[in-house]
Amino acid sequence: MTKQELMIQIRSSDLSQEQKNKLFQELAKTTDPKKIADKLKKEKPSKKSPKKEDEPKKVRARDEKGRLVGDDPSTPDVDEAWVEAKPFQPKSNKKQGLSDAK
After folding, report:
1. CB–CB of 1/31 below 8 Å?
2. For residue 98, what pLDDT band results from cuts at 50, 70 and 90?
3. How far apart, in whole angstroms, are the C-alpha atoms of residue 88 and residue 97?
4. How many structural domains compose the chain?
């Protein structure tokens, strides 16, 4: 396996960016890419941080015309510029108003 092929495998792996950088550095220093290929096979992807589902997602507030709403400086304890996001609800594909009668 050539160094270029190994670089492509490292890029497409599920490893964290930190792990990939470490392998790239070792690959640049070594003359034998087989050792790095073996390390790549042994490396396990790092555990990703769990998603914070407890905290609601915040999005910028908008008025009726779709313009961004600014924060009111007279209310320092409330941030009017950010609101909680509404959960996504996909639209139904069913056509409304049509009956099954023939």
Report:
1. no
2. low
3. 24
4. 2
β-bridge partners, 58:
84
CA max distance for the chain: 77
Q: List, for residues 27-46, the tens digit of each pLDDT value.
A: 888 878 787 778 777 777 76
What letter does residue 95 receive in the DSSP assignment? P
How far is Cα 47 from Cα 50, in angstroms, rounded to an integer?
9
Instruction: In whole angstroms, give the CA distance from residue 24 to residue 3.
Output: 10
38 and 20 within one domain: yes
Whether the CB-CB separation of 85 and 56 falls below 8 Å is answered with: yes
d(CA 17, CA 36): 16
Q: What's the domain range around 18?
A: 3-42
Structure tokens at 30: 């070594």
Q: Let me know whether 58 and 32 are in one domain.
A: no
Q: Is the pTM of this model over 0.70?
A: no
At 16, list the tokens.
């964290």
